[in-house]
């Protein structure tokens, strides 16, 4: 069977290979050895709070299951607009908000709306693997720009200027980032956007983890920089609704109708049931629960990052958001007699029953040295993970 060159270009998601191996091993040793601890998971270990689940039940019971407008329920767009005002002090009119099937659909719509064949998009190395595939699926070319710890593993204005070429269309950023949990310093972000704007390019920023920010210095939306910033967001992370497939994007006014046309054709609309349920995310009771959970994520970070550092799994930049730790495993791998993050991850899986993610998916620059730990797991499991690593490499 012949497949499109576009489909052939998409690389496998190695994270899934590791996850499959971990699940296989967990089944094999069930009952005979200590259970596998999964620190490779990129989603919250919480589910949607009660009001949201009750709203979903109600939507089903009342038969609110027809298609919605491609841009999403007006009431939900208004609620999201209200959230930007209340939480970030930024005025984002509902008419610029497009509700999508997760951030994934928003990223695809942004790429399809903005990229022509051969256009280049600059993004940091390391970054979320799907981003370069979204660009590639739109026949564009993702240009991975190696970053350093000093840059918080993010692009800098100087690097954007240096990497900008005749075919560059813009930048695709994520703040806080997956896999590092680090945000772009606000001043640097402003300079990046100015450099992009001066070259007639576009700034797309994935703010899916912005709700899970733990430091006042970083927890601000890039939408404050101007109407020309495109921000991607989602109900998956802060709102704990990964499987509900619901997200949104904020676009410049002039882009709304283009995205609407694409969304009508490609998706018709995001899940109607999820949209009705998501209205309840913004009730005071739900926000209080989300804030309690955010504090829990922060407490896990505050326990786990120093513990990793003590184990010689150095985290060069403390994460200020999300639930990840990007750790240098060079020294720890040597202690286990292996080389590189891929072998280190498998060794940890076999010998300590700990599943983590090797850096390989996230780029090419320095990813053989780094692994990603997810702290989206209970404090008890994180403590047990540290004890097992201590026994093995401490
Ligand atoms: C940085 C980033 N962007 C986008 C996504 C996709 O999220 P969604 O579930 O909203 O499609 C993820 C999921 O892990 C992510 O980490």
Question: Can you describe this structure?
Answer:
The protein folds into two domains: 5-47 and 286-393, Aspartate Aminotransferase, domain 1 (Alpha-Beta Complex); 50-282, Aspartate Aminotransferase, domain 2, CATH 3.40.640.10. The longest helix is centred in the last third of the chain and has 27 residues, at 284-310. The protein has 14 helices and twelve strands. A seven-stranded mixed sheet has the order 2-8-7-6-5-3-4, with helices on both faces. It is an alpha/beta fold. It binds pyridoxal-5'-phosphate. Residues 42, 102-104, 128, 174, 178, 206, 208, 234, 236, 242, 247 line the site of pyridoxal-5'-phosphate. This is Aminotransferase. Its cofactor is pyridoxal 5'-phosphate. It comes from Alicycliphilus denitrificans (strain DSM 14773 / CIP 107495 / K601).
Question: Any key phrases for this structure?
Answer:
394 residues, alpha/beta, Aspartate Aminotransferase, domain 2, 7-stranded mixed β-sheet, 3-stranded antiparallel β-sheet, 14 helices, 12 strands, 14% strand, binds pyridoxal-5'-phosphate, pyridoxal phosphate, EC 2.6.1.-
């Amino acid at each position: 069977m012949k497949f499109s060159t576009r489909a052939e270009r998409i690389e496998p998601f190695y994270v899934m290979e590791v996850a499959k191996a971990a699940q296989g091993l967990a089944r094999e040793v069930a009952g005979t050895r200590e259970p596998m601890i999964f620190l490779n998971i990129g989603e919250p270990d919480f589910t949607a709070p009660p009001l949201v689940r009750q709203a979903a039940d109600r939507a089903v019971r009342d038969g609110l299951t027809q298609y919605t407008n491609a841009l999403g329920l007006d009431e939900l767009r208004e609620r999201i607009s209200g959230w930007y005002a209340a939480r970030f002090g930024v005025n984002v009119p509902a008419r610029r908000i497009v509700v999508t099937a997760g951030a994934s659909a928003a990223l695809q719509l942004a790429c399809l709306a903005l990229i022509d064949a051969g256009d280049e998009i600059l993004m940091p190395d390391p970054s979320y693997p799907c981003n370069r595939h979204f660009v590639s699926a739109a026949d564009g070319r993702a240009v991975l720009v190696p970053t350093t710890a000093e840059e918080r593993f993010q692009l800098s204005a100087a690097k954007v200027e240096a990497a900008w070429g005749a075919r560059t269309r813009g930048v695709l950023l994520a703040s806080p980032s997956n896999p590092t949990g680090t945000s772009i310093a606000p001043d640097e972000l402003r300079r990046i956007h100015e450099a992009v704007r001066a070259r007639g390019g576009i700034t797309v920023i994935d703010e899916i983890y912005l709700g899970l920010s733990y430091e006042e210095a970083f927890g601000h939306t890039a939408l404050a920089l101007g109407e020309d910033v495109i921000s991607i967001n989602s109900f998956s992370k802060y709102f704990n609704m990964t499987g509900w497939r619901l997200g949104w994007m904020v676009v410049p006014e002039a882009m709304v109708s283009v995205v609407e046309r694409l969304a009508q054709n490609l998706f018709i609309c995001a899940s109607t049931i999820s949209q009705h349920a998501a209205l309840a995310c913004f009730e005071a009771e739900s926000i209080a629960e989300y804030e309690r959970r955010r504090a829990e994520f922060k407490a896990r970070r505050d326990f786990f990052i120093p513990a990793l550092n003590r184990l010689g799994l150095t985290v060069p930049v403390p994460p200020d958001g999300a639930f990840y730790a990007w750790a240098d495993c060079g020294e720890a791998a040597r202690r286990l007699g292996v080389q590189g993050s891929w072998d280190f991850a498998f060794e940890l899986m076999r010998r300590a029953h700990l599943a983590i993610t090797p850096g390989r998916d996230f780029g090419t620059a320095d990813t053989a040295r780094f692994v990603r730990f997810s702290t989206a797991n209970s404090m008890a499991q994180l403590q047990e993970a540290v004890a097992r690593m201590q026994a093995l490499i401490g």
